[in-house]
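YM 10:42: N(2)-fixation sustaining protein CowN sequence, as discussed on the call
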Amino acid sequence: MHQQEKPDRYVSFVGIDGDRNSEELMALLRRHIDDPEKSNAFWEKFKEKLARVGQPDQNGGRCLDELFLVHSYINNIRELFEEYEDEAALGLLERIERESC
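YM 10:58: structure's back
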């Protein structure tokens, strides 16, 4: 009997491209939060954090990445995608949560 191999974050992150997935998710998120009619003070602050990704000198020595932001704000992100019925983004968010969170 041959079992289908699939990535398991509890064993190894091999086969999981968390960085690419989270970068893609941020692009899907930006489609919403860059629209002034969909943004608010929270998302404007979030965009400031997103702008500091990969720039520890701009963030008190701490190096942020997109995956960290997804982990930190997963519920806010999910709520926004649900509000705008963005099924593709919700699917990717579910995958990231399952594989990387």
